[in-house]
Predict the structure.
Amino acid sequence: MKIADIDLGERPVVLAPMEDVTDSSFRLICKEMGADMTYTEFVSADALVRSIASTTRKLTIADGERPTAIQIYGREVDPMVEAARIVEQAGPDIIDINFGCPVKKVAGKGAGAGMLRDIPKMLEITRAVVDAVSLPVTVKTRLGWDHNTKIIVDLAEQLQDCGISALTVHGRTRSQMYTGEADWEMIARVKNNPRLTIPVIGNGDIVDGESAMRAFDTGVDAIMVGRASIGAPWVFKDIKNVLNHRDDMLTLNDKFNIIRRQINESVERIDQYRGILHIRRHLAASPLFKNIPSFRPTRIAMLRADTVDELMSIIDGVEEQLSACSR
């Protein structure tokens, strides 16, 4: 599958853009685990235009994680165009436009999935960004604003007419947020529309190899993995094992070492206090710490630890406990 001239191979599996998750370290680990493309955290066009330091830092890309897309969001044409030009200078492989974020602070202000309530403005922004840069431009969006406005099949054609190189569809409406099941039948309708010629990337509820196989059975060109990778970047290896009929599984120690690496790199990237705060989301979500008997006090201690030494000591103890149980 190709996005413009970027060849992602057969049945590519890509890492979704996620705020406060897909930092440069996490993207690189996911790439090493088998992700065929990575996306940055989404970047506010308004903040980028105003040169907000915390936003401009998100534009840093390591060669080892490529191909990488930088995703931008906003609700007005001029800031989105200017932001796209700034992003282009940062050297990503692709510029992605976020028309899918459902959270109130974004969608409620008309950006992200909020654009699903103003299709003319969405198309105007898309066309202007495509015309402003030489890099491939892609879009990520949802089925529609709510159950009564699932407009994605027609919208996909309109976005294609604006000149985008690929479309990612999350199989939920904005009103659903992340509840209920993703509607892969609707994603299949987008892909199987004979008038649509650009690649379609399907997103929603892909958590393992089996769900990945079902997703590809709909005909999509690629799949995007989001929440299932939080605290478990090895999910890409698990998926590729199933897709490619391999048995290249990580050991328990391998997975714990990845968590340790995430902690160390998060602290090195920021500082000890904020680095540990950042990594807590991964620790809270990681399947490594699920279904352990009488684990609640340990979980609380792990999520309250405020030094690397304290956190590592707790994690070492958990690994030793799990290793002993598996002997």
Q: What stands out?
A: The radius of gyration is 20 Å. The first strand starts at residue 2 and ends at 3.
